[in-house]
Known about the structure:
Blueprint: H1 14-32, H2 38-80
Helix pairs in contact: 1-2
Amino acid sequence: MRKRGSLPQIKLSDSQREKLREEIGAFYLDVRGEEIGMIEQIQLMDLFEEKLAPVIYNRALEDAKRWFGQVMENAESDFYGLYKDEG
């Protein structure tokens, strides 16, 4: 199997970034009782996007690969179930 070139870095849309930034601010306020500013929220989001997103993406690929393998295994089993006795 040939190796593909590297994928571009995962980037969120502006609306996704804004929603997550607000979620980070709300989390800090609810859980820690601290208010953090927009710059800190953006810095945390950038850190997550850079470091955590690739880990989650790779895990999702592994999960999809495992699911697809099970589907193909079932399809192969179903295929052989179609054969008729010849004797």
